[in-house]
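pinned: reference chain
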Amino acid sequence: MLKSNIKWVLIFALLCVLCITLHIVHTKGKSGKLAVIKKDGETVKTIDLSAVSEPYEIRIESDNGYNIIYVEKGKISIKDADCPDRLCVKQGTIENGAYPIVCLPHRVTVSIEKADGEVDAVSGGGAE
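pinned: its structure tokens
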């Protein structure tokens, strides 16, 4: 009876390893979230946040001033800006597509989208 139990435990363990391997192979190479930076409604830069290895900054210049965007693995924020209210800086870091960061005086937006073009579940809509 003990050998029978060991046999079933080994079969279960092998199935677990197989499932994990298939999951890794299936998700390998797929990117997760894309950060889209726009100025005046035009896309300035698109960043795959899952591919960021080290944090870095991007400076966006406009006629009215600048925004410094801080990019980290899986998240993004506006670190500094010379707009009068600095609400874009106060919005903090975003990690999902629920709310974009908006700087109205400089007409800059930072949003997160899923890499496969699907709408994030948080937004509740569908692409039709």
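why pinned: The chain is about 25% helix and 35% strand. The domain at 33-114 is CATH 2.60.320.10 (mini-chromosome maintenance (MCM) complex, domain 2).
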